[in-house]
Design goal:
Oligomer: homodimer
Protein name (chains A, B): Ribosomal RNA small subunit methyltransferase E
EC number (chains A, B): 2.1.1.193
Radius of gyration of chain A: 20 Å
Keywords (chains A, B): Cytoplasm, Methyltransferase, rRNA processing, S-adenosyl-L-methionine, Transferase
GO molecular function (chains A, B): rRNA (uridine-N3-)-methyltransferase activity
CATH topology of the largest domain in chain A: Alpha/beta knot
Strand content of chain A: 15-25%
Structural class of chain A: alpha/beta
Helix content of chain A: 25-40%
Family (chains A, B): Belongs to the RNA methyltransferase RsmE family.
Number of helices of chain A: 6
Order of helices and strands of chain A: EEHEEEEHEHEEHEEHEH
Largest sheet of chain A: 7 strands, parallel
Low-confidence stretches of chain A: none
CATH class of the largest domain in chain A: Alpha Beta
Mean pLDDT of chain A: 92
Distance between the termini of chain A: 20 Å
């Protein structure tokens, strides 16, 4: 912590300047009080972490020069998070936590009992970027557009297994030890629960592991963090 | 979900009315639109869940009559959460999540790098109550007053082991399998990290298991949820 880290969505070519938009330049100069000559860490999600020097930063924009790579690129395991959007703060929270916990892709889904008609995809993506900046990561998970779960499951690649957190399954939690590794998706339901049609659909799919998350009914945001944690500890890069 | 559940801190004696304060009575009548004759679920943290009938509920107060016990009392495992308070929203969040995840006691601690001088203990306790109402639990963890960690460790009962999440230990997460059961406390550090003195103190204590939470640095609130999840899955009641 403490170190300034910025995600900059540009190719990193040593000797070539990175351009800052007004917002990032103001963050460096106005908020963090950093001026020309100061060194910060930057990453673009593909080329690891680099040390960069501030050449210019003011309210109109700025420029950085790349100095040297400070850490290799590290991608998370091939884990997706599918979740039904909740109220604003809890949805923001899920995206932040998923990025910290090392989800590779975040897919908001519309279920039969989801209220959300749309999501603020840009705001959610910004939360994922900020989480990556904070947690020292070099990868930023993509936040997909809101998609109906049924449509997603129709075209589902059966090589990607699904960890299905079913709140109706209250009881001892399954152990994830023994589940095969490879691509997975964690699927978290809406506050209103799964519909009978969704339950039947998921129960009939191959490669779906239905799990309980203990004897108390977790809120959907808690369930997302708990399920990602259990997956990372058992099958991921923890 | 859906069922109205109220925590009522009174002895449950069948045949004896439960009295509602103006706030709970207004919640039932004004917010949830429930009137005399409607049935709700109540719990007091000791006697399980009961079905109760509304006898009266308006802006001044109200009364319920107990009908029958609907679920036995279920206490969480003997797990404490010690954490350094963060900003308001994240502290509220940790308390909510700890209650959902089945912590028995929540202890905000002052560490060498904690900024908080005080906590809104009443507000935090209310969050724990609301989480218990939401998650179908019959137990409400007590939120203790803010206490210096050093003082807490001085009088520490060595029978209670400590799961110490050390953000400096970045790397493969330890498996908790093999750790002994019994009373435990999960200890989560402040955003500013542990001081050298705290590190030395904790490293020298018997019964302290130091764990990593994976290769990314987790925010303190994420670390709290992740560590409670791993403990519950390995040693708790999940």
């Amino acid at each position: 912590m403490g170190k300034i880290r910025l995600y900059i969505d540009q190719p990193f070519v040593p000797g070539q300047a990175l351009l800052l938009g007004p917002e990032q330049a103001h963050y460096l100069s106005g908020v963090m009080r950093q001026g020309p000559g100061a060194e910060i860490a930057v990453f673009n999600g593909r080329d690891g972490e680099w040390t960069a020097r501030i050449e210019r930063a003011d309210r109109r924009g700025g420029a950085l020069s790349l100095i040297a790579r400070s850490a290799p690129q590290r991608d998370p395991p091939d884990l997706w998070l599918l979740f039904a959007p909740l109220k604003k703060a809890r949805t923001d929270f899920i995206v932040e936590k998923a990025a910290e916990l090392g989800a590779a892709r975040i897919l908001p889904v519309q279920t039969d009992h989801t209220n959300a008609e749309r999501i603020a995809q840009g705001r959610l993506q910004a939360h994922a970027v900020e989480a990556a900046e904070q947690c020292g990561g070099t990868f930023v998970p993509q936040v997909a557009e809101l998609t109906p779960l049924a449509r997603l499951l129709e075209g589902w690649d059966s090589a990607r297994r699904i960890l299905w957190a079913d709140e109706a399954l209250v009881g001892p939690a399954q152990t994830l030890a023994g589940l095969p590794s490879g691509p997975w998706a964690v699927l978290i339901g809406p506050e209103g629960g799964w519909s009978e049609a969704e339950r039947a659909r998921l129960a009939g799919m191959a490669g779906v592991a239905r799990i309980s998350l203990g004897p108390r009914i977790l809120r959907a945001d808690t369930a997302a963090v708990a399920a990602l944690t259990l997956w990372q500890a058992a099958l991921g890069d923890w």
